[in-house]
Each structure stands twice: as C-alpha cells, then as structure tokens.
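Deliverable D2.4 — example input (structure tokens):
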C-alpha cells in the first residue's frame, strides 16, 4: 500500500443561509494515497466543490463552518492559521479549476503567473524561475514555450489555458492536486489529451490526485478509487473496477444507467427523476435519494442508512440495495 497523503475524517462543511447553517458536505471520511487518483463523482449540487474548497480552506470563513479533520502530514488543516495554510496551498496541495479563464489573472502574462508561484514557494533566483517556467510549459505540452511565456490567457485556446493551469498547479511539485472538473469545459479530443497529460505527470511524480467530475466516462479513464456523493454524503465508495462493474447503490446504478451507449440509444435513456435537493430544503431524515426512486416502497427507506462495508473496500449507504430494481420500460423513471 502506498503512503497515505491526506485523511479526511468526519468532515462537515456548512454554509450560513438566512442566519442558519446547512451542511453541504456531511460527515465525509476518506483517504488519498501517494500515486493514487480518487475520483469524486456526483451530479451538480452534490457538494463536490464544497469538499474541494474545504480541503483547500478557501471558503469564506465568516459564512462557513467546517468540522471534523483534514489530516495532511500529521496536522489537521482545520486548526492551522492562515499563514501556515498559505504555505501549504500551491506548494504541497494545489488546485486545478474547471474554468482557467476565470482562475487565471487576465492582466498577467502566463510566464509571470507561473513564476509568481515559484517566487512565493521556492528560493529560486529570477533566472532560475524563468528557466523552470519554460521547462514546465514544455512539460505540459505547450508547443512554443518561449512565445506562450509572454502571452496573456485570453490569447490561448481553452486546452492551452488548461495546460497552463496544470503547469501552475504542479510548478512546486505538490504531493496532492485537487482537480475540480478540469476537462468539463473542453471538447472531447482536448479532454482526452488533458487527462493523458495529468495521468502522465501523476505517474512521473507519484502525486495523489482528487479528481472531481460528474462524468463516469472520465472516471473509467483516470480513477483508481471512486467516491460517489449524493446530497453531501458519500453513498458508495470502492475501487474503480468495483464501482463500474458491481455498483450497488441505486444512485450509482442510476448514474451508470443514464450514460448513452449505441445499444441504449435505440431504446430510451434512463433519466433520474427530479434534482439534487438544495441544502436549505433537504429532508435529512432517512435516505436522501428516496424521492428520486419513488417506485421503491417507503418501508425500504425507513431506516437511516449508514455507510457500511459490503465486501472488502466496497462501502454502500443504502438499506434497500438488495431489492433495488429499475422500473420496466415505460415505468415512472423512463421518459
Ligand atoms: N457559498 C455557499 N453558500 C451557500 N450555499 C452554497 C455555497 N456553496 C455551495 N452551496 C450549496 O451547497 C451545495 C453543494 O454545492 P457544490 O457547489 O459543492 O456542488 P457541486 O457538486 O460541486 O456542483 P457543481 O458540479 O455544479 O459545481 C449546493 O446546494 C449549493 O447551492
């Protein structure tokens, strides 16, 4: 087993809405090891980004509360002062955002933005920073590093901008990278190139990656471990093979059922009814997914489902997974 990099224990992050706190991340526990890619999967609003920003401690502290622990190298990041966190962010744990155009500074050249991180976190001289920046640009597949060094983000294509974001994220050789939907805004061929690039860097550096996505195709491509989130909770977790080949939670099964395949397109696709509930309106008693599988009897959802291990390394939060079935075609869940 590789060395553990990060351990999240009973993490709950709540946001203040109209003077009341509501949990968007609800009692989450998991670990990331060296050389491991952990995918966090779920629909929009499940709490994936809230989790990522909690690990980075980037939430507005006046309106956000995080409880539990986020253990990195033996210390709980939740107890660390901002000055210490600034030394961890970018140097030890870094982040790649979905939209590089909003994450990058539009007024600063690409080269200066990479050098800024090297300047803050390393003792390299100006000359060394420039040399390292050009090497990084080359490593992330920028065809003309010297030219791109002097360009502004808006002068680059979406794929090139994402490569620059990756160069910034890996500039100081972090041990952990959190990638929040890094390929969602890109077209499929560029998506595949960016995934290859991330995997390539990860294999060379042995860094751990938390990869946030709603796309199970991407999960199959990149992940070692998969965490499926629904309404702030982990509903299933296990190895990528287990989750894709032997999913048990009705939500995981529904996500997999809604992926188009040539065979399925002849029939109609499964549509998961309704939406992820908002944190302020969520019914937190019992199973949170019950409203979206109305054909399953209410008695099956009566107990509060706890995340339990059903086989080594495979955890499920459901009391009715053994009886779960999809309605026949034309039933309530098929549109
Ligand atoms: N700063 C905030 N204040 C109040 N509520 C928030 C805040 N940030 C997120 N939320 C709420 O927390 C829940 C989880 O949001 P989050 O952005 O983490 O979901 P997500 O799974 O990352 O979705 P997406 O894929 O669309 O980014 C949502 O109900 C969202 O409205």
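Example output (designed residues):
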């Amino acid at each position: 087993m590789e060395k553990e990099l990060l351990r999240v224990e009973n993490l709950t992050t709540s946001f203040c809405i109209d003077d009341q706190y509501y949990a968007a991340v609800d009692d989450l526990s998991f670990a990331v090891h060296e050389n491991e890619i952990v995918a966090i999967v779920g629909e929009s609003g499940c709490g994936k980004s809230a989790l990522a920003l909690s690990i980075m401690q980037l939430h507005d502290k006046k309106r956000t509360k995080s409880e539990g622990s986020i253990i990195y190298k033996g210390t709980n990041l939740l107890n660390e002062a901002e000055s210490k966190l600034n030394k961890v962010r970018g140097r030890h744990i870094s982040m790649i955002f979905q939209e590089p155009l909003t994450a990058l500074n539009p007024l600063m050249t690409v080269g200066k933005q990479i050098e800024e991180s090297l300047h803050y976190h390393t003792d390299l001289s100006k000359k060394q920073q420039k040399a390292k920046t050009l090497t990084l640009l080359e490593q992330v597949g920028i065809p003309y590093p010297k030219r791109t060094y002097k360009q502004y983000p808006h002068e680059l294509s979406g794929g090139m901008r994402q490569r620059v974001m990756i160069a910034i994220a890996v500039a100081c050789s972090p041990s952990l990278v959190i990638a929040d939907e890094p390929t969602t805004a890109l077209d499929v061929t560029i998506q595949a190139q960016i995934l290859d690039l991330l995997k390539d860097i990860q294999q060379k550096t042995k860094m751990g990656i938390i990869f946030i996505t709603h796309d199970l195709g991407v999960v199959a491509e990149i992940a070692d471990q998969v965490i499926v989130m629904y309404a702030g909770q982990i509903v299933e977790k296990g190895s990528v093979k287990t989750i894709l080949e032997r999913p048990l939670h009705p939500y995981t099964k529904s996500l997999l059922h809604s992926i188009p395949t040539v065979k399925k397109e002849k029939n109609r696709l499964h549509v998961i009814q309704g939406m992820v509930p908002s944190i302020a309106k969520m019914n937190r008693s019992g199973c949170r997914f019950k409203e979206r599988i109305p054909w399953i009897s209410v008695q099956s959802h009566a107990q509060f489902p706890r995340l339990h291990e059903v086989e080594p390394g495979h955890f499920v939060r459901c009391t009715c997974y053994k009886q779960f079935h999809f309605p026949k075609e034309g039933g309530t869940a098929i549109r």
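Residues 330-335 have pLDDT under 50 and may be disordered.
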